[in-house]
């Protein structure tokens, strides 16, 4: 039975194939496909770039590459009212024909032949679209090409896409093309918001763009519009009430300026997404407008101090979206470089990187919040940093040092954990300038001796707000951005080029991030604005300031659970200003932004890590921050990271054997059989001893060692705990004028129990002196070995080279 059916089918197929019409049709299809393959239709139109906010409102528009306002209208923007109006006027059978209307073509040909002139056309919307894509002279040859192209268009695209392309190309006079362009530039609204009267107006102008000029010939436009509205009523296209409202609607149409908001981000996104006609940014328009207003008002106030530029970046900590982006206070101010994008300008960060350093030190176990650090003058192999206020505080806790942005403890910490560790972390965090400078960076980088951008440092602080995990900033919203109509293209989510981190990287543990945040929340600190109680409502935020060398850059970066805001203030020219500082110049604006953008936030504050958390409390000695030792009588509690924080017993005091009067100390070698006592004495670092002595701060010093001790004073030792030579610098070269050589200084730092030091030049005794006494000598060209020994027999050597100028 199956074979019988198959024979019948074959027989029917052979009889059909013998029909001439079928053969002709198949041959025509094959010819069409051949021409279609050989002469493909190009629909890659250069559109104007539109940058929208997160809610879809238009922020900024750019001319197309051929200087046209040709804005891309999406399918969702073609409303049913618009579709019905335009197709009723231009192509009633659009949904049914294959690109051309044969009945209309025959009717037009007959009519034109009878009249002897062209009185009627038969172009469909598809054919008009072809004509807009490939303009040609109006000849019969051109008409045949248009027919072929129209069928190509119908084969490759849906009816909706063809109508969309047509609406994107229709002319409105001058350099305005496309219904969306006309809607925005003449009515100030998107196509979805147009009324029937406005839609009708925009449907009639493309046929007569020179005579029906909006804003110039509005009376004529109204007359033509109403005629078409009457036709709509006759054909029952819309209900009578809608038509009546449209007839009575006044025409308020004139040429408007294209939207030009958020210029810095818009230009950036256009550069990063050159083929996107619509770029959906993550900016929130209300927040952007508010931030711009606050920045401009603040910039006007500080201009009197010769400070001209300000940049602000606001990031949503949950979505990592950039919700406000202000590259400068006034984009139109070309005199002060208003078109420079301060978000991406490389500047010196001052102290703004210190929170990361302390976080790394917490994770390395080097410190806990109450670990004591010495804020005293210190020489780091020739580098002698100073504090911002040129004052020193002596021993301070780590949290005090960070909250007060002290420089010496920060440099000492960086030396301990290693500059490569900090550089590597910043490289992993996407700091581009630091990647280039990596081989040149030293201890000074923590005080601003490197280059960062406001974007990079704000992104870094979002990691502190997110438990130490650094995520890429999102400049585009989650919505999919459309691409130009092009066969084979697929829409893709646009991601900024700054999204270098796939899934984010962890730069700090949650415990370290919490400890840093807890410290930066303190308000008993010097980087509050002057008289802030009278001028500002202090928001609940964690924040850090920074002021670069020469007062060229003022930074203030703050965060709460909801937002991270970065503020930079200064001059793009690099000119320093005496009044410029992170505390008094950048922080007031930071507070204003938080108070306006997130006032009385209901979002809870940061909580201690709980899941698998290693954060714990322990008793420590307040003198050092270490675990209490034998002489610690008043322990306090401090945070620690279990298994990470170092377990060191406190040795802030040490036991010394002295005579009964306390004037001579003994070692185990010279300890007498009787007449001695065991007393505790402060165990001070050499630099702290020097600090106390130079500032005449009283402290209990260890008595001089027993002069009769043969072990200590019998020969010069070579121990490794000798005095620290702070001048000159080991391994350095010094140039002198042999005729008038300048004197060079010898200085050292010795332990608390040292009373006398001995200076040697090339192994010859130069002079004996007190540890705090500065000596001077006149050098001679050549290699020079400098040795310093203390009265305990411990010594240190350095070598320098003296050269002629």
Automatic annotation (TrEMBL):
InterPro entries: Beta-lactam/transpept-like (IPR012338), Glyco_trans_51 (IPR001264), Glycosyltr_51/Transpeptidase (IPR050396), Lysozyme-like_dom_sf (IPR023346), PBP_1c (IPR011815), PBP_C (IPR009647), PBP_transglycosylase (IPR036950), PCN-bd_Tpept (IPR001460)
Record-linked Pfam families: BiPBP_C (PF06832), Transgly (PF00912), Transpeptidase (PF00905)
EC code(s) of this entry: 2.4.99.28
Reaction(s) the record says it catalyses: [GlcNAc-(1->4)-Mur2Ac(oyl-L-Ala-gamma-D-Glu-L-Lys-D-Ala-D-Ala)](n)-di-trans,octa-cis-undecaprenyl diphosphate + beta-D-GlcNAc-(1->4)-Mur2Ac(oyl-L-Ala-gamma-D-Glu-L-Lys-D-Ala-D-Ala)-di-trans,octa-cis-undecaprenyl diphosphate = [GlcNAc-(1->4)-Mur2Ac(oyl-L-Ala-gamma-D-Glu-L-Lys-D-Ala-D-Ala)](n+1)-di-trans,octa-cis-undecaprenyl diphosphate + di-trans,octa-cis-undecaprenyl diphosphate + H(+)
A GO cellular component annotation in the UniProt record: outer membrane-bounded periplasmic space
UniProt keyword Transferase present: yes
UniProt entry keywords in alphabetical sequence: Carboxypeptidase, Glycosyltransferase, Hydrolase, Membrane, Multifunctional enzyme, Protease, Transferase, Transmembrane, Transmembrane helix
Gene Ontology molecular function: carboxypeptidase activity; penicillin binding; peptidoglycan glycosyltransferase activity
PANTHER family linked to this entry: BINDING PROTEIN TRANSPEPTIDASE, PUTATIVE-RELATED, PENICILLIN-BINDING PROTEIN 1C
Enzyme class: transferase
Domain PLD phosphodiesterase: 304-335
Keyword Translocase: no
Recorded family membership: In the C-terminal section; belongs to the transpeptidase family. In the N-terminal section; belongs to the glycosyltransferase 51 family.
Transmembrane segments: 21-41
Source organism of the structure: Spirosoma validum
Listed GO biological process terms: peptidoglycan biosynthetic process; phosphorus metabolic process; proteolysis
Metabolic or biological pathway, per its Swiss-Prot or TrEMBL entry: Cell wall biogenesis; peptidoglycan biosynthesis
Origin: domain of life: Bacteria
Designated name of the protein: peptidoglycan glycosyltransferase
This protein's encoding gene: pbpC
